[in-house]
Amino acid sequence: MPERVSRPRRSRRPPYAVCAALFLVLTGCGASGTAPTAVPGAGSRAPASPGTTGAAGPVAAARGPAAPTRPRGIRLLGQGIRAAIPADSLQALVVTGDSADSSLATAVLYTREDSMAGWQQAMGPWPAHNALKGWTDEHRAGDLRTPIGVYGLTAAGGLLAAPGTAFPYEQNPLFKVSGEGFQGDSLEGSFDYVIAIDYNRIPGASPLDPTRPLGEERGGGIWLHVDHGGPTQGCISLPADRMRELLRALDPAKVPVVVMGDAAALAR
């Protein structure tokens, strides 16, 4: 979610003022609530299992229908997480945290041709950051942890003009951010490009929309945004060039999702 904006005044704010931004209402990058595993706004159906084609002719018929096979899954994802990826999703950004309490992660974009096909690695691996205190299944506003789960990606924006994207994109000066992160890293430019993660928000709305369907205590403003060299308050951050690549690659018509959590949680 957005990181808290530190105004340039001489009384220096503590580093944990890191991830808040703009409007301050969007205390993104770290104030979120419990993460439902199903993707808000993207459907929650498990991937369909295509049937295998058996040998043709009477012999095959006598043996009955062939056993179904499952599409090739994304490496390291457990059955529970795989089942939460919508059947019609053809793009999945998988962000894997180093451990439950680590702020270091790796992002890989997977794609598939259709819901019957297996997933293929399309981009990455890329270095990423998540929240200062790691990950949680029970995310609450201000807990400095990133929610685990599968979430839709339906809108984008930023301080800079869109680098070419099919997402609805809002360029707005409210995405300007300043101040320092947890490790003294500069937050400037962090919101040059953002993609809203559909956690406790209205899918398709501007990333700046303050509406929190689950309530303010569950946080919100969880984004993918430009990495500033340190932990976030709850968001996922990627290098600027990778954010530009991602914005160009993701297509709302392909129901893109982000699958995120520490390695142990994603293996469940």
TrEMBL record:
Residues 45-70 have a biased composition (Low complexity). The keyword Signal applies. Keywords: Cell shape, Cell wall biogenesis/degradation, Peptidoglycan synthesis, Signal. Pathway: Cell wall biogenesis; peptidoglycan biosynthesis. It holds the Pfam family YkuD. Residues 1-31 form the signal peptide. The active site is at H225 (proton donor/acceptor), C235 (nucleophile). Residues 98-260 form the L,D-TPase catalytic domain. It comes from the Bacteria. InterPro entries: LD_TPept_cat_dom. PANTHER family: BLR0621 PROTEIN. This is L,D-transpeptidase family protein.
